[in-house]
Amino acid sequence: MLDKTYDPKEIEARRYPEWESSGAFKAHPETQKPPYCIVIPPPNVTGSLHMGHALDNTLQDVLIRWRRMKGDDVLWQPGTDHAGIATQMVVVRNLEQENIGLAVEGAKAEGNRKLLSREEFLAKVWEWKAFSGGTITGQLRRLGASCDWSRERFTMDEGLSKAVLKVFVELYKQGLIYKDNRLVNWDPKMLTAISDLEVESREVRGHLWYLKYPIEGSDEQIIVATTRPETMLGDTGIAVNPDNPKWKHLVGKHAILPLVGRRIPIVADEYSDPEKGSGAVKITPAHDFNDFEVGRRHNLEAISIFDKFAHLNDKVPEKYRGLDRFDARKKIVAELEEMGLVEKIEPHTHAVPYGDRGGVPVEPYLTEQWYADAKKLAEAPIAAARDGRVKFVPERGRDEFFRWMENIQPWCVSRQLWWGHQIPAWYGPDKKVFVALSEAEAHAEAKAHYGKDVVLERDPDVLDTWFSSALWPFSTLGWPDETAALAKYYPTNTLVTGWDILFFWVARMMMMSMHFMTEVPFKTVYLHGLVTDEKGQKMSKSKGNIIDPLELIDKYGADALRFTVTSMAAASAGRLRLSPARVEGSRNFATKFWNATRFAEMNGAALPQGFDPASVKLTVNKWVLGELARANNAIDHALADYRLNDAATALYEFIWGIVCDWYVELSKPVLQGADGADKDETRAVTAYVLRETAKLLHPVMPFITEEIWDKTGHRAEHGPLITQPWPVPAATDAAADDEIGWLVKLISDIRSARAELNVPPSAKLKLLVVGGNDTTKQRLATHSAAIERLARVEGIDAAATTAPKASLQIVVGEATYALPVGEVIDLAAESARLKKEIQKLGDEVGKIDAKLGNASFVSRAPEEVVEEQRERRSLAEQTRARLATALERLGA
User: Fold this and answer.
1) Which residues touch 90 (CB under 8 Å, ≥6 apart)?
2) Which of 253, 22, 245 is nearest to 149 (CA)?
3) Quick one: 679 exposed, middle or buried, by C-beta within 10 A (0-12, 13-18, 19+)?
4) Cα dist. 380→254, 281, 508 in Å?
5) pLDDT digits (tens, 9 = 90+) for 532-572
6) What distance in Å separates the CA atoms of residue 79 and residue 708, rounded to the nearest whole number?
7) Which of 36, 212, 268, 516 is the most buried (most CB within 10 A)?
8) Which residue would you say has higher pLDDT here, 833 or 648?
9) DSSP H/E element including 683
10) 700 contact partners, CB below 8 Å, separation of at least 6
11) CB of 641 closer than 8 Å to CB of 650
12) 787-796: b or e for each residue (b if 16 or more CB lie within 10 Å)?
């Protein structure tokens, strides 16, 4: 028997360990069952569960549990990412509290401060990982994630490290990994190159400085506008648009760089926008990504004027050397003003890239790094996406994929960190590089080259974290060893992830997998939107709008959170708006199902041995079995098509709308009436419907359904719900569907019409039926008690010839149904109220249309504000239409 009160916290704490310890999550590669595999996007080992994780992992678990019930041999491959820069930062911060630093270049052991060598630091990181690195996997368990934890991997574990070394060495020997001097995103605080994903753009209020550069051999000056005057010391050219009448006469001449005296050419390049700034752009190839490309087009020198700390180096005049970039800015501007070379300074708000870990502005920095030939590696993935071997849901993901891949740049794979996979490259005395799987192999190669043993120095850099995670679909299955898991589960079936890492992770997995496995790594990429707050704003600490999924789980239960995010996950949605109120509503939904099951138990609902749904005789029971079959099909097809939100909607509409609101109410008189065949049948059907419903709901709400399954006796007979087969839909009965469908619509329309006209709930009105045929009259007689009880009417006249003027009227089928309301509401006042509300809503729609029709508003307003206006308009239109129907029913 179910407890009186649904307590998700107690249930969830008890059920998950039972599942895991029973082996219910384990894959079985030795069986002949068809495989279904998803690899988890590995969360950072430093991380804790946030709403993105909650959404992403819930959607994966829904698919995994569904496919397990469909009879597949399921593997949900779990693991964590070593998160190079994030983990190093966490451990360094912890060490700083103990007055311990790292023995990096420039570090000093002052006072009692201790400095750790690389080996000592890595030992500390592994200590931290053993103690704190499992936080997020524990939190995923709280969410209900049914991963095969016995196969959990870590990007720095022995097997994956072996795979990383093999991939790097082979790509190097194939000429697809090489060293090059290019611009990178450089974090001057963390002292490493970082990826674009680790760069966040911040709006900063700054200035636009208009600087005068003298033209050689002339009194003329060319004016350039810049937000970074300090970089002018590295200028090697000026670009003007070839069609700019103001400056095109200077193309081919030289300007004299102020403060430095260097001659710099003026070149024609369409990169310069005549409408922006002064129409002329200073070109600093070593400190701007766009300038770097302009410099390459015009063979301009790239002069790097910063060191790794973003201090000015010895490539600038002596008086600026050693200055921080922002101190240098002040000094340079002051000197230019003294020389009369500042035309004007304007306030200017612009986007500045910041390192998301270091928290300081990123510096485009010219440095030698290791690169992968992404253009070559992208060829096979592009072909696979084009010919349909990999499908994207939604389809626009394919276009976004092509946009990235067809314009791909070399991939910087090296990072200046200690934590990570150290690059397997050793340098000889003349800096010749030897790339090998081990130091012993490198020494052997060096001896063969030099003819003697030499001292080798290993490259201190580590690989970009995305490099190891790019191997995830096959390295986690045991590659380069030929394992049973690799043979059975590769290629995997579905990848579930967010749009933000389509390029950084999805594309790179496709590159590496197709190069080393010669097959696509997954057949479908399901891309979900970003979880935002209820206003559509991205969650952030600075806005104070972060919603903690663990707090929601504590308050409402994991099932409620899971149902909420699943119901939000429309494949076309870019932003998924979440509010705690929605999660509370999902908890109420769970409670509703719990209470309906308990009501059935209290009324003797039980499934007799050998129950056959096809033997049912009562119309209402035939109808509910048909509705169950339709729900089953709808949910199954929605999950197969990755319309997980539609599956959640179908569950909600069936459980709350059909079972709880209608079937329980319509069958209540039988269940609570005299004993007999009808009661026995209804008890059996109720138990059967609730049992099958628990199966349908299980992938989305596993905890409550497993508890109900157990407490209603099914576990003792069949085993845990998690191991049960997916239901097979029963046959439907068209006549029963038609009859009960008519009854439900009639009662629903009467209820809605009463509510819209403010008819008091206590008022019991006579129902007059005009124009009903013999079938309708028969149905009215059969279901009169239900209609009177549920629609709150008193008496039914099935032979009325006309509807009174002062009546509420609705049409169902061929008949008109009238409720005289003249004595219970003021018709004139109600008519006036409806007209006023309709006018008010029309005015609101007009104002919103004016806003949305204003191109300036649509282009400048934040996306979430525009979307909010569209939603308000849609809601107002729906309400206006409903009230107009109510007014029409009054004949006004």
Assistant:
1) 46, 128
2) 22
3) middle
4) 46, 39, 11
5) 888 888 887 767 888 999 999 999 999 999 999 999 998 66
6) 31
7) 36
8) 648
9) helix 677-697
10) 62, 559, 562, 563, 566, 647, 648, 651
11) no
12) beebbbbeeb
Place of tokens 């795979």: 163
- Whose structure tokens read 């400048």? 860
Cα 367 to Cα 3: distance, rounded to the nearest angstrom: 66
Q: What would the two tokens of residue 459 be?
A: 């490259």
Provide the token pair at 619: 């119309």
User: Taking the mean position of all CA atoms in its chain, how far away is CA 812?
Assistant: 44
* pLDDT tens per residue across span 251-294: 999 999 999 999 999 999 999 988 888 889 999 999 999 999 99
- Over residues 387-396, the pLDDT tens digits come to 999 999 999 9
Beta-strand relationship, 807-812 and 815-820:
antiparallel
Range in 379-383, 678-682, 819-823 with the lowest mean pLDDT: 819-823
DSSP codes, 211-230: EEEEBTTSS-EEEEEES-GG
Per-residue pLDDT at 103: 86
Edge-to-edge strand ranges of the sheet holding 411-412: 192-194, 177-187, 363-372, 411-412
* CB contact at 8 A, 590 and 560: yes
Judged on CB neighbours under 10 Å (0-12, 13-18, 19+), 9 is middle
Res 92: pLDDT: 92
Q: Is 197 helix (H, G, I), strand (E, B) or coil?
A: helix
CB atoms within 10 A of CB 249: 12
Q: What is the pLDDT of residue 764?
A: 87
Q: pLDDT band at 573, cuts 50/70/90?
A: low
Q: What are residue 681's DSSP bridge partners? A: none
pLDDT in tens, 695-708: 999 999 999 999 99
Chain-centroid distance of CA 339 in Å reads 54
Q: Which positions ≥6 away from 686 have C-beta within 8 Å?
A: 600, 603, 605, 663, 667, 671
Closest C-alpha among 197, 193, 194, 202 to residue 501: 197
Task: Classify residue 284 as left (phi > 0), alpha (psi -120 to 50) or beta.
Answer: beta
d(CA 418, CA 119) in angstroms, rounded, equals 9
Indicate whether 220 pLDDT > 70: yes
pLDDT at 576 over 60: yes
> What letter represents residue 638's amino acid?
A
Contact residues for 142 (Cβ-Cβ < 8 A; gap 6+): 12, 16, 49, 550, 553, 558
Residue 604: CB atoms within 10 A of its CB come to: 14
Largest CA distance in the chain: 114
CB 302 within 8 A of CB 366: yes
What average pLDDT is seen over the chain?
93
Q: Say how many C-beta atoms besides its own lie within 10 A of residue 610's C-beta.
A: 6
Residue 588: other Cβ atoms inside 10 A? 12
**Residue 28 Cα distances to 18, 537, 692, angstroms:** 19, 43, 26
* 691 burial level (CB within 10 Å; 0-12, 13-18, 19+): buried
From CA 725, how far away is CA 718, in angstroms rounded?
11
Q: What is the DSSP letter of 663?
A: I
Report which residue type is found at 31.
T
Return contacts of 878-884, CB within 8 angstroms, 24+ apart: 879/841, 880/838, 880/841, 880/842, 880/845, 882/756, 883/756, 883/834, 883/837, 883/838, 883/841, 884/838
Give the pLDDT band (50/70/90) at residue 196: confident
